[in-house]
Amino acid sequence: MPRGFFITFEGLDGSGKTTQLRRLATSLAAEGHSVVTLRQPGGTVLGDRIRTILLDSKTEAAIGPISPLAELALMFADRAQSIAEVILPALEAGSIVLCDRYTDSSEAYQGAGRELGSERVRALHAAVCNNLQPDLTILLLPDLASSLYRARRRNLRQAEQSGTDENRFEREGEAFYQRIHNAYETIAAREPHRVVPIRDDASIDHIEARIQSIVAQRLATREP
């Protein structure tokens, strides 16, 4: 059976990546493709527990500050489990895997945002993930201020509705997020074949159409 196709969605929180991933999954499934979706951190029982630790703004009040290296290690523990439990089996079964965040997020958030350095993150990826790379990465980079506003508003609404508070990262300042934004631009320039950046603030429908066109072209030209 031909290997599946691995697509990741990257960008700042509030960039619209989760919405676009869901829309693409619906479109691909309607075309008859087998589609598997997941998010990082999360997507497995272990990953969901790690997600609670890493994203809940109440975590540090309960257990104390999480060191940047511990944060990075937890991200990769989640990633290793999702690769073993979800991603590789789905690819081996010929499915299209759509993943909301992957190692590019660690390079941007921990490598740049926490200032741990890209080389440390990429070395961990090679060691822990056996250097498994996406076939295609959709990078959404709309206006930084707009992204943060949407992310914070969404997380507050979610906290009010469900009691789940995933606002730990959104409490960081503008300099933190500017470093992340710059890191994403660096990744896109370094790997132009894999990473396709979409930088404008167009409508959801317009961006969806662009993504579907990009994915259709890649699927049509991929090696068997």
Helical segment count: 9
Structural class category: alpha/beta
Poorly predicted runs of 5 or more residues = none
Mean pLDDT: 90
User: Which CATH class?
Assistant: Alpha Beta
Percent helix among the residues?
Answer: 55-70%
Q: How many domains would you count in the coordinates?
A: 1
| Radius of gyration over all CA atoms, rounded | 17 Å
Task: Give the CATH H-level superfamily.
Answer: P-loop containing nucleotide triphosphate hydrolases
Total beta strands: 5
CATH topology: Rossmann fold
Q: What is the H/E order?
A: EHEHHHEHHEHHEH
* Amino- and carboxy-terminal Cα gap: 10 Å
The biggest beta sheet is recorded as: 5 strands, parallel
| Beta fraction | 5-15%
- Gross geometry: globular
CATH architectural group: 3-Layer(aba) Sandwich
Task: Summarize it.
The protein has 224 residues and is of the alpha/beta class.
